[in-house]
Amino acid sequence: MNIVKVENLPNTKISEIQRFFKKNQIKFVKIKPIQDKNFCYVIFREKSDETDCLEKLKNKFWKNKLIKIGACTYDSYAQEGNSVENLNEIMMNNVTPLHNVEYKNQLEIKKDILKNAFKDIDKDLRIKSNNLNSLEYIDYSNISIIASPVINGYRNKAIFSFYIDDNDEIVIGFRVSSFKNGYIQVSSADKCKHISYNMKFIIKIIKENLGKHCISVFNPIGNSGRWNNVLIRESVCKKFIVQFNLKNAVDFDKNELIIMESIKSSFIESNLDVTLLVEFQESWCSDSKSRTLTICGSGVIHEIILGLTFRVSPTSFLQINTQAGELLYKEIERMGKVNPDTVVLDLCCGTGTIGIILSSKCKKVIGIETNSEAINDAKENCIINNVNNCEYYCDRVENAIWSILKENVNNKLLVILDPPRAGLNNKLIQVLRNNDKINQIIYVSCKLSGAKQNLVSLMSLISNKFKNKPFTLKEITGVDLFPHTNQIETVMLFERCI
């Protein structure tokens, strides 16, 4: 790999740095500025391009600053100088920042996080409504948090990266810190409290097998190499999905096929019930053409939630803490006061978990989800559980919602929104606001800052954009799905103003 480190840069944007290099006719693959630092790394495809850069920028001034430049190694890019122990502590503080805090104190910290988040939402709501609307009626000190029944080893899904350390040994775990901060190193997940013993045992098996061979680990600097990560799912029944991701690959090479057969044999010898898959991606881009090959198993696992059975595919969304997730679903049911006249609109429905759990208590469930794999799982889950009052559509919510609302104009509607972290397209919120048949919404969020615009729009005063009455935030409950982290799932009940 051909890398140079460029120091003493002026305070400028990456686009200006790129223009500077192009102006000096320097051919590069990627420029990686390090956040809040005055240096960057430049990656070249050819050694001759690196040499050319060193010559052209020697004693070069840019914006009255003398640029310092020199060749560097992969390891210096990777923050060489940190010990393995230091890197592991940095990683755990990023992945599980509350891992050294007693659990009851973690809940108090999360209560403060919720309090501050809603104060921020209130501030935006006041600005948008010229102080005519606010959340001043909410007693922030009285927001309840439901504790997780499982504190350690609770994650049912995790993605582990591969890395080759200074001793040419394979490391499987989590990235030490973000790539934008200059870290590409991976630190072992052995000490991570949120990862189960079983997942760690599977990682150990994989590491032992990979360590016997010379493998090409994917390198995010030059986007070269193949072995990128491994996804592991674990059900409460102790069944597992293990899916490897190989970049720049359309099939196994001879060595990789031997490795995969060896891993498969090790799982069998260890009496592990594993579905083993490999995803091949033609290039390094996350959206590049891919195919998934099943090595052994059915390709899915089944999870038991509140006595119901759910089929889960490798990439389908499911709450990552199954036991705490059950408490979340019970809280949604309690807030929604579902009855036989209710039609539940389960938007961003994933594998259909929420809707199927509520199906026995309501008239009908209509679910919408963009992930086709998850929709297939949702339909299959209805069959498995003998549920016949659920309909599922694979589409963007803002596209499918119009016809669904027209077809259910005479029904009592309960909308359940459980979107990704970034929230929903605000056009959908506009649709919900302007439909007078929707009077009750339950919004589930794992990141209130991402949902803030949605929440403010639900409560904003009548305007040209929002022609119907606003919603009032009636109830807030936190559910701790993520012990040892500063994240918390928030369930909110909104009702239309009278």
Automatic annotation (TrEMBL):
SUPFAM superfamilies: RNA-binding domain, RBD, S-adenosyl-L-methionine-dependent methyltransferases. S-adenosyl-L-methionine binds at Q319, E369, D418. Its EC number is 2.1.1.35. Keywords: Methyltransferase, S-adenosyl-L-methionine, Transferase. The active site is at C446, C446 (nucleophile). It catalyses: uridine(54) in tRNA + S-adenosyl-L-methionine = 5-methyluridine(54) in tRNA + S-adenosyl-L-homocysteine + H(+). It holds the Pfam family tRNA_U5-meth_tr. It is an enzyme of class 2 (transferase). One of its GO terms (biological process) is methylation. CDD domains: AdoMet_MTases. Residues 3-70 form the RRM domain. One of its GO terms (molecular function) is tRNA (uracil(54)-C5)-methyltransferase activity, S-adenosyl methionine-dependent. Belongs to the class I-like SAM-binding methyltransferase superfamily. RNA M5U methyltransferase family. This is tRNA (uracil(54)-C(5))-methyltransferase. It comes from Intoshia linei. The lineage of its organism: Eukaryota, Metazoa, Spiralia, Lophotrochozoa, Mesozoa.
